[in-house]
């Protein structure tokens, strides 16, 4: 079987590579045909632009050629031995490569119901990432929350703070279009104004040094700063005045602080949030791009963050 896969061959270069995909599945493997993909403007774009911190570390997986992928909706074509969680014909979400066909371990696949559209299902992984602060350091009922950054993860993290009982929820971004999208997602506290915004629970979802410093300045004494972004820059702080003297907790919330097995019990809840519309994602979809035209999508996310946010890859 031939499959076409997106490939980063060099900085700022995305090509489509075609290769043979063995059809004989190993134990626990699943063969998938992708239906719809979502580009990550965080990890994927950082590797596309060669700004990912992994390039600084010898032996790190951030290298070229790189086969991007983050979240896709797919049909199960076949399953290998000892696969009991999905069957041929099921519709699933996975985090494999952006490719026409893919082989994935069944343990990393989530079957979704007919009630969940492809356009919502493709956000399931992003929603799982945004859940990480609530898994590691849950917001308290009635606690004031401030979120810095209204990209997809920051937007979803803001919505989840509201679902978890935070009040009020203030969400800050410097890009007016993203604030407008957040308000369309019912984040009433979305704003361009970062002055005098404080809270006991602060999420940093930007990945830049300035945003981290803003998060430290915004957190109230004895409060918590949750670093949800994957920082792309080094940052200089004063540990005594910024953290120690004020009794601040700084908590790293990288997605993989909780394993796939630890996250599995929340799959049904996250699907319910999407199906019910309690979490809104449609306003974040700004572009739909043909799979073969992915270079345009990565360039748009790189060059026009005011216009591009959620870029869907369509397979046909």
What does this structure look like?
This protein is α/β, with parallel strands linked by helices and 316 residues long. It has 2 domains: 2-123 and 281-314, Medium-chain alcohol dehydrogenases, catalytic domain (Quinone Oxidoreductase, Chain A, domain 1), CATH 3.90.180.10; 128-256, 3-Layer(aba) Sandwich (Rossmann fold), CATH 3.40.50. It is built from 10 helices and 15 strands. It has helices at residues 43-48, 118-121, 124-136, 152-163, 176-184, 209-218, 239-244, 260-263, 267-276, 294-303; strands at 2-10, 13-20, 29-38, 71-79, 91-94, 101-105, 110-111, 145-148, 169-172, 190-191, 199-204, 219-227, 249-252, 285-290, 310-314. The strands form 3 sheets. Strands 3, 4, 5, 6, 7, 14 and 15 form a 7-stranded mixed beta sheet that branches. The longest helix is centred in the middle third of the chain and has 13 residues, at 124-136. The model has no long low-confidence stretch (mean pLDDT 96).
Model regions low in confidence, pLDDT < 50 over at least 5 residues:
none
- From the N-terminal CA to the C-terminal CA, the straight-line distance is 17 Å
The amount of helix comes to 25-40%
- Number of DSSP strand runs: 15
Globally, the shape reads globular
* CATH class assignment of the largest domain: Alpha Beta
How many discrete domains?
Answer: 2
- Helix/strand order, N-terminal first: EEEHEEEEHHEHEHEEHEHEHHEHE
Strand content: 25-35%
C-alpha-based Rg, rounded: 20 Å
Largest sheet: number of strands, sense, barrel closure: 7 strands, mixed
The third-level CATH topology of the largest domain is Quinone Oxidoreductase, Chain A, domain 1
Mean pLDDT: 96
* CATH-scheme architecture of the largest domain: Alpha-Beta Complex
Considering the protein shown, what is the CATH homologous superfamily of the largest domain?
A: Medium-chain alcohol dehydrogenases, catalytic domain
Structural class assignment: alpha/beta
Helix segment tally: 10
